[in-house]
Write a structure and sequence with these properties.
340 residues; alpha/beta; Nucleotidyltransferase, domain 5; 2 domains; five-stranded mixed sheet; 10 helices; binds 5'-O-[(R)-(carboxyoxy)(hydroxy)phosphoryl]adenosine; binds zinc ion
Length: 340
């Protein structure tokens, strides 16, 4: 095998998606995701149920990724897996599987940080092409567990320059949706209803956090009061005004995200910006970032939808770079719930 064109298997099991993907020289050969529906009725991810579902899914998901890629496991050059952050019981399933496979095959084990992998989704190439950002660039990483501004100097050199002090942006969407009675995860539904709503219908709190950090608790609280006050007058308020409520909530979250992103871009003197993570799938955020980028003269990068939410192609992409840098992990590597 050509060492600069490695075949890497990626495995992701940090939360409620069991995923496996094969990359050949950084190009996607397969990308399989099994989502766990079991959490919907509980209004959030239940860690024990997640671990059990990962155990059920991991073998068929990896097998399918190899089959779709037309690759035998013996042909792989490295096994990449999500080491953390995430739910520890969920991470354990992917970690044990990856360790065993690497040991059985005698191939390098590549331990990946999930949040860095979200950023590296920008470097994934697939059949649809799409442009890849040059370094350095700023990344706004927005997922259900994290909200960060990251200065990306290279694939393996990243610096977090801003982070949320409380909820993540995805949680703000999910909790806001829950207040309106929407099922978990509410983010995609808020996005959908917001398209038919007026983003200026309700004024929500504007967070006053200094520097490049974020806070979403004020937006959430003011949204809760808005809904409760409306319901005091009309019990069907949240349902009748759903589109306007979703549009207003989404606007408040995006305003905050983009205000901080602009401050970081100007402060760091950067010209390229990307978004990644599950919330990067939000159509309002994509549109408004494109508008802001055009105004500010930035190049804007948004990964294809399939690589925004949790997936294993991004894990394999991180593994690809670790492999090229010769940074393999010991076979007794343990998962970590939080990043170092
Ligand atoms: O990155 P991800 O798949 O998992 C984590 O690592 O957290 O992100 C999941 C988060 C959830 O909070 C979900 O509601 C949110 O991303 N999300 C969205 C959209 N699609 C997913 N939020 C807003 N609009 C969307 N279209
Ligand atoms: Zn994620």
């Amino acid at each position: 095998m050509n060492p600069s064109f490695p075949l890497i298997l990626g495995i992701e099991s940090s939360c409620d998606e069991t995923a496996a993907a094969v990359l050949a020289g950084g190009v996607v050969r397969s990308n399989v995701v099994a989502s766990q529906e079991v959490h919907t009725r509980w209004g959030g991810v239940v860690p024990e149920l997640a671990s059990r579902a990962h155990q059920e899914h991991i073998v068929p998901v990896v097998r399918e990724a190899l089959d779709r890629a037309g690759v035998r496991k013996e042909d792989l050059d490295g096994i990449a897996f999500t080491r953390g952050p995430g739910l520890i019981g969920a991470l354990l399933v992917g970690t044990c599987f990856a360790r065993s496979l690497a040991q059985a095959l005698g191939k390098p084990l590549l331990a990946v940080d999930h949040i860095q992998a979200h950023v590296l989704a920008h470097l994934i190439q697939d059949r649809d092409g799409g442009s890849v950002p040059a370094f350095p660039f700023l990344n706004l990483t927005v997922s259900g567990g994290h909200t960060q501004l990251v200065l990306v100097r290279s694939a393996l050199d990243m610096e977090v320059v801003g982070r949320t002090l409380d909820d993540a942006a995805g949680e703000a969407f999910d909790k806001g949706g829950k207040i309106m009675g929407l099922p978990y995860p509410a983010g995609p539904l808020v996005d959908k209803h917001a398209r038919d709503g007026n983003p200026n219908a309700f004024e929500l709190a504007v967070p006053a956090i200094p520097g490049l950090d974020f806070s979403f608790s004020g937006i959430k609280t003011s949204f809760l009061y808005t809904v409760r006050q409306g319901e005091a007058v009309d019990p069907a308020f949240a349902e009748k005004r759903r589109d306007d409520l979703c549009a207003s909530l989404q606007r408040a979250i995006i305003d905050h995200l983009l205000a901080k992103a602009r401050r970081a871009m100007r402060g760091l003197g950067l010209q390229r910006i990307g978004i990644a993570g599950g919330v990067a799938a939000n159509s309002g955020l994509r549109a408004r970032l494109a508008q802001l980028g055009a105004k500010e003269g930035w190049e804007v990068f948004v990964p294809p939808f399939a690589y925004c939410t949790d997936n294993a192609a991004m894990i394999a992409m991180a593994g690809h770079h670790l492999y090229l840098a010769g940074r393999s992990a010991p076979l007794d590597t343990v998962p970590v719930a939080r990043s170092d």
